[in-house]
Structures are given as structure tokens and as C-alpha cells.
């Protein structure tokens, strides 16, 4: 029997930051997976030489990610939108998987207690969150749903791993399959997911030539100006 409950601890079903990553994926993908998108089924064969771990760690650090917090999943017809990969909070991880029919899955990895897997408190939601209509245990994970979205969440050590999507676009069976397939990326998968070496992805500050070396650092608008 399905239980109904609401929790003030429960984060938004589609976290704001994760949703922003999802929108970025939509913009880049259109109706088909974007160039550079990867399916988990395309992961490297174990027969291939393992990527250098030190290089993987450096690439993760350059992207402000913790390599051990990078997770991947798979679902039939869905491919990873690599441009959606990014950091959540201080050291979490987020990514999106898209399908040609417009379906989208969001994968997030966050530390406890900033995120929770269960929804058993029973109190009213806070922060304008859409009320839960379903909250139930499903195997080793928790399934929760609002009128518009739904998600599966599980705890692994000090991490909470959540796979979510819109109910109109992603059915529960697909969501469950993706949630159960979620796992920490091995070195081959890290090599596919992480930005290439030397790709700053816009995170490095731009050096400006119009900032004075002394004073409050305000731009010198006269630099290079005529007359």
C-alpha cells in the first residue's frame, strides 16, 4: 500500500542547480542526443588500458569535481549529455541524460545531511515545494512523486544519489531502471564523463588588462580610450 507523507527536510524534487544543468542539456541537445553525448552502454571495454588515475584526478579537480563523487547510470534510449556535467554545492555531482523523444533524467550526488533519501517525516513541505503525492519504499531506494515530477533516491555511505525526471516525459519503470543502474564511475567511465584535459569550461577567471595594480581594483575606463 502506498504511503503518503511530506517532509520539511526533503529537497526540491528537481533541485534548482540540477534543473539548470538539465536546461543546459536541452539547449545543447534539441530532440536528439547532442554530439559528444555518451551512452553508458558505450563505456570502454575492460580490455582497454586503464586511463592514468592521476590524470583523471587532475581533470576532476580542474572541473571542481571530486572523482569519487562522479556517478553514472544507464537507461534504454538515453545518452549522457556531457555538457550537463557539473558540480552541485561544495563537492556534489550532477548530470543529465536525454532521449530523442524529449525525455530527460537528472542524476545528482550530494552529501548528507544536505540531501536526504527518505521522506518519512510526515510534516508539511517548506520553501514552496510542490506537495508530495507519493512516498514509498521500493527495494533499497525511496520513491517520491509530486504532480509533475518523481525521483528515486538511495544512500551510499555519506552520499545521497538521486535520479529524477518529469512524470509526463519519464515513466516510473524507466526511472527505476536508471536508479538501480546508477553506480560510481570506474576509471574508464570517468575518462568519458570528465571534461578533457586543458578544458577549463569557462571556470578560470579572465585576466583583464584594464585593472590598476593598486587601489580598490576598479576598472580604468580610460585604458585604450581615444580623445
From TrEMBL:
The name this protein goes by in its record: Membrane lipoprotein
Top-level taxonomy: Bacteria, Bacillati, Actinomycetota, Actinomycetes, Kitasatosporales
Compositionally biased spans, kind Low complexity: 37-49
UniProt entry keywords in alphabetical sequence: Signal
Ranges of Basic and acidic residues composition bias in the record: 183-192
Region of interest called Disordered, as start-end residue ranges on this chain: 33-56, 179-227
Signal peptide, first to last residue: 1-24
